[in-house]
Amino acid sequence: MLSYGELNRRANQLAHRLIGLGVEPGDRVALDLPRGADLLIAIVGVLKSGAAYLPLDEGLTAERRQWLLADSGAKLSVDAAWLATPGTWPEESPAVAGDAESVAYLMYTSGSTGEPKGVLAPHRGITRLVCGNRYAAFQADDRIAWAANPAFDASTLEIWGALAHGASLVAIDKDTLLSAEALGARLQRDRITILWLTAGLFQRHARGLGAALSGLRYLMVGGDVVDPRVAAQVRRDNPPAHLLNCYGPTETTTFAATHEIGAEAETAASLPIGKPIGNTRIYILDGDGQLAPLGVAGEIHIGGAGVARGYLNRPELTAERFIAAARSCRAGRTRRRKARRRRRWRRSGASCWGWS
Predict the structure, then answer these.
(1) What is the pLDDT of residue 353?
(2) Nearest partner of 73 among 29, 25, 105, judged by Cα
(3) Which residues, other chains included, contact 270 with Cβ-Cβ below 8 Å and sequence gap of 6+?
(4) Which residues sit opposite 323 in a β-bridge?
(5) pLDDT at 86 > cutoff 70
(6) What does the buried/exposed string (b/e) look like for 121-131 if buried means 16 or more CB atoms within 10 Å of the residue's CB?
(7) Per-residue confidence at 356, pLDDT binned at 50, 70, 90?
(8) Which of 53, 239, 271, 298 is the right S-S partner for 46, CB 3.0 to 4.6 Å?
(9) Per-residue pLDDT tens for 114-162?
(10) Residues above pLDDT 90, as percent of the chain
(11) 325 domain residue, yes or no
């Protein structure tokens, strides 16, 4: 068990150590650690040094690990040996300048549609995800499951949903996560109140988790298409207080839209992705950048505080996919509406990320 006081002290010591080794604001530091207290200390310590963290998947091949370290330009790689002995580094927070635009972490897309891309996520994206988000009210007495792979951006929700509200973060190991029986027992034993699952695991475990689901305040599901039949079954048999379908690409900091699944799941052929979360805007635009009429297919354009800073070392792709909001979201029926929308976006300093 790790208290907030110990987390702060040990993270400060690591931050001072990193700074002493030449880590500067804007650098990237790789974290080669499993889910647990050491990884949490490392994440907070890296941020306190002003750098951004790059979490590495435990299951990476040696070749893929070396590629990520080289492509990311990571200045250092922190593993368990780093945290075995805290040493005599100061326990006070280092004086490091930073702001909401500073990069908090670097995560790579899967590469399923080409070479993996490193996404630079800023602090403002995390803040908007877990504070004033309009889809979940995190509380200090929550016990949030840390079940996502640290190299997957759902872990951003879990980690910072807890830390930003003084809640408890409970690490769930991979073997437990893959067993419905073991996971259900763990949810009940540790009195978990918030759980995020991939759509695949949700559909695989829904029946086996049984009554453990009804003890949750929030069950969030995403990462793929959610089967409405399974959602309807959960709502009938063991409903959590809130069952959410969550949508969002890595480029927009975990979630961009959520939908609270209700009675419509009983008859729906599919579930909607829902409405934008706090400080987020979503438009469906046609090829000319105009709002697509209802029922007409178009491209999803997502704007607001969650939009990443771009892709690392990919300026051309960044320019193609991360578009100035005033240009890409110029839709409107009148010039007055268009001008008003442009002024709002310019004042917010927002950009827009488009995906078809």
Answers:
(1) 64
(2) 29
(3) 225, 228
(4) 352
(5) no
(6) bbbbbbbbbbe
(7) very low
(8) 53
(9) 788 999 999 999 999 999 999 999 999 999 999 999 999 999 999 999 9
(10) 83
(11) yes
What is the reported pTM?
A: 0.90
pLDDT of residue 127: 97
Which residues sit opposite 198 in a β-bridge?
A: 222
CB 260 within 8 A of CB 242: yes
Q: How far apart are the C-alpha atoms of 251 and 255, rounded to whole Å?
A: 10
Contacts for 128 with CB less than 8 Å, ≥ 6 apart: 253, 277, 278, 279, 280, 304, 305, 306
Dihedral sign, CA of 340, 344, 350, 354?
A: negative
Helix (H, G, I), strand (E, B) or coil at 283: strand
Place of tokens 């590469």: 111
Confidence of residue 295 (pLDDT cuts 50, 70, 90): confident
- Between CA 248 and CA 254 the distance in angstroms is 5
Q: Is residue 240 part of a domain?
A: no
Q: Structure tokens of 287?
A: 């090829």
The Cα 191–Cα 269 span in angstroms is 33
On the 0-12 / 13-18 / 19+ scale of CB atoms within 10 A, 317 is middle
Alpha-carbon gap, residue 53 to 155, rounded angstroms: 13
* pLDDT value for 335: 35
Structure confidence at residue 97 (pLDDT): 85
Structure tokens at 73: 């330009």
Number of domains in the chain: 2
Cα distance between residue 87 and residue 338, in whole Å: 58
19, 251, 31, 216: which is closest to 136 by C-alpha? 216
- Domain range for 315 is 280-355
Q: What's the one-letter identity of residue 209?
A: L
Please give the pLDDT value at position 265.
Answer: 97
